[in-house]
């Protein structure tokens, strides 16, 4: 069973990303499948705001941070490269985008300045690429709650078998009023740990202590804490 880790290329990898990547990696290995890292590198908003060269650079840095942590993907894919194949696979079913949103899915919609200008389109192409890459297990956080129904809609429209979904709670930081571990907050980047001389084993151990009920039992879904949180006195291990 293949899994995919699908980071948006708009910032450096952080501990919340690595937590999800570890779960994806373990699940793929346990099932004898492939661990796929798919870069979300073609969103018009981020291309316009950051520039194509910066977005491409973030893809390389995210890959480097993952591999530093010991997570080597079986496949690296890029949504910018796969876009035409994904859209071509939809064929006449692009009409379903119009039905889902009540507007025509024209290219102009994809050039506006909102971060997510056209959610049905973004979901549809992900559904197709998940199918093309045979991703049978999707490990999701809060975005599962917001996208689940739309994802199922396109699976039904396209006649695809629905993959298995696994929800995992978001990693937060107990010492900062459960603050976000995110690119937006700008904290807990893997690069910061690397610059301070931390080893991959130390960083993964910190995550295991923060996220897992029994760190020795490994990165299994049933072993994830209901509220995973980094320690209040966040150490630079």
CATH superfamily: HUPs
Query: What's the shape?
Result: globular
Query: C-alpha Rg, in Å?
Result: 18 Å
How many strands? 8
Order of strands across the main sheet: 3-2-1-4-5
The topology string of helices and strands comes to: EHEHHEHHHEHEEEHHE
Class by SSE composition: alpha/beta
- In CATH terms, what is the fold-level topology? Rossmann fold
Any key phrases for this structure?
237 residues, Rossmann fold, five-stranded parallel beta sheet, 8 strands, 12% strand
How is the topology of this model organized?
Blueprint: E1 2-5, H1 15-31, E2 35-39, H2 44-50, H3 52-68, E3 75-78, H4 79-90, H5 95-101, H6 119-132, E4 135-140, H7 142-158, E5 164-167, E6 172-173, E7 179-180, H8 190-195, H9 200-211, E8 229-230
Parallel strand pairs: 1-2, 1-4, 2-3, 4-5, 6-8
Antiparallel strand pairs: 6-7
Helix pairs in contact: 2-3, 4-6, 6-7
Describe the structure.
The protein has 237 residues and is α/β, with parallel strands linked by helices. The protein has a single domain (2-171), classed as HUPs (Rossmann fold). The chain has helices spanning 15-31, 44-50, 52-68, 79-90, 95-101, 119-132, 142-158, 190-195, 200-211, and strands at 2-5, 35-39, 75-78, 135-140, 164-167, 172-173, 179-180, 229-230. The strands form two sheets. Strands 3-2-1-4-5 form a five-stranded parallel sheet, with helices on both faces. A three-stranded mixed sheet has the order 7-6-8. Helix 2 (44-50) packs across helix 3, helix 4 crosses helix 6 (119-132) and helix 6 crosses helix 7. The longest helix has 17 residues, at 15-31. The radius of gyration is 18 Å and the shape is globular.
């Amino acid at each position: 069973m293949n899994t995919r880790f699908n980071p948006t290329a708009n910032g450096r990898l952080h501990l919340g990303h690595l937590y999800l990547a570890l779960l994806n990696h373990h699940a793929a290995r346990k099932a004898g499948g492939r661990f796929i890292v798919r870069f979300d590198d073609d969103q018009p908003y981020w291309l316009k705001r950051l520039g194509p060269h910066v977005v491409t650079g973030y893809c390389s840095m995210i890959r480097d941070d993952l591999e530093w942590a010991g997570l080597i993907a079986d496949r690296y894919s890029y949504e910018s490269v796969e876009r035409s194949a994904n859209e071509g696979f939809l064929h006449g079913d692009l009409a379903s985008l119009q039905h889902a949103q009540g507007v025509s899915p024209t290219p102009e919609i994809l050039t506006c300045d909102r971060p997510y200008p056209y959610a049905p389109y973004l979901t549809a192409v992900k559904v197709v690429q998940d199918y093309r890459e045979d991703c049978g297990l999707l490990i999701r956080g809060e975005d599962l709650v917001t996208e689940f129904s739309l994802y199922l809609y396109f699976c039904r429209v396209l006649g695809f078998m629905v993959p298995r979904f696994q929800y995992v709670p978001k990693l937060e930081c107990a010492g900062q009023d459960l603050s976000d571990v995110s690119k937006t907050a700008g904290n807990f980047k893997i690069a910061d740990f690397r610059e301070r001389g931390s080893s991959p084993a130390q960083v993964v151990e910190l995550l295991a202590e923060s996220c897992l009920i029994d760190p020795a039992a490994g990165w299994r879904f049933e072993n994830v804490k209901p509220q995973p949180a980094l320690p209040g006195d966040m150490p630079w291990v």
